[in-house]
């Protein structure tokens, strides 16, 4: 079997939506902002749910919001400095991979209680190591890697308000 099995990794919809929000905000013209209703309309997701995700991104200092007629959300942290670990931790928190996982079915495979404890610890160690590697990789990758560029290598600037209003 191949080691390349990324398609089996389960990403939460919150995490994926957070990436979408940040990409849209990163593509805005300077000093522009988007309202949560505009973002949720474009992403075709629940407005209430999107607001909850945006609040998490705001608490992580990735975005900021302005309450006014022209207000909305915009990036607070420069797009070149946002890595996927920032996004992941903002939305998912620091919950270990094995939290809330019942390892008792593994216990039934062994008769000796010492062996049960030893092998359960091995399972935990394997997943702790996997989590460390995953988080390290997220930290090494930047949001800008998925932002589209023009022929000159400049990040695209998209007038999302215009596009959304034309839909």
UniProtKB/TrEMBL annotation:
Q: Which residues cross the membrane?
A: none
Q: Output the SUPFAM superfamilies linked to this UniProt entry.
A: Winged helix' DNA-binding domain
Entry-linked PANTHER family: HTH-TYPE TRANSCRIPTIONAL REGULATOR YWGB-RELATED, WINGED HELIX-TURN-HELIX TRANSCRIPTIONAL REGULATOR, RRF2 FAMILY
The taxonomy runs:
Bacteria, Bacillati, Bacillota, Bacilli, Lactobacillales
Entry-linked InterPro entries: Tscrpt_reg_Rrf2 (IPR000944), WH-like_DNA-bd_sf (IPR036388), WH_DNA-bd_sf (IPR036390)
Q: Name the domain of life this protein comes from.
A: Bacteria
Q: By what name is this protein known?
A: Rrf2 family protein
Q: Per the record, GO CC terms?
A: cytosol
Extract the GO molecular function terms from the UniProt entry. Answer: DNA-binding transcription factor activity
What organism does the record attribute this protein to? Enterococcus avium ATCC 14025
């Amino acid at each position: 079997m191949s080691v390349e099995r990324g398609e089996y990794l389960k990403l939460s919809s919150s995490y994926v939506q957070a990436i979408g929000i940040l990409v849209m905000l990163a593509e805005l013209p300077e000093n522009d902002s988007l309202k949560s209703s505009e973002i949720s309309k474009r992403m075709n997701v629940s407005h209430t749910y999107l607001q909850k995700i945006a609040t998490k991104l705001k608490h992580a200092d990735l975005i900021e919001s302005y309450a006014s007629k022209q207000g909305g959300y915009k990036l607070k942290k420069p797009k070149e400095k946002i890595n996927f670990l920032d996004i992941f931790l903002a939305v998912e928190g620091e919950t270990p991979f094995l939290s809330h996982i019942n390892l008792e079915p593994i216990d039934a495979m062994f008769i000796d209680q010492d062996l049960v404890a030893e092998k359960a610890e091995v399972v935990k160690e394997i997943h702790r190591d996997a989590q460390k590697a995953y988080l390290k990789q997220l930290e090494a990758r930047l949001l800008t890697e998925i932002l589209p560029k023009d022929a000159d290598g400049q990040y695209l600037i998209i007038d999302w308000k215009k596009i959304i209003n034309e839909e």
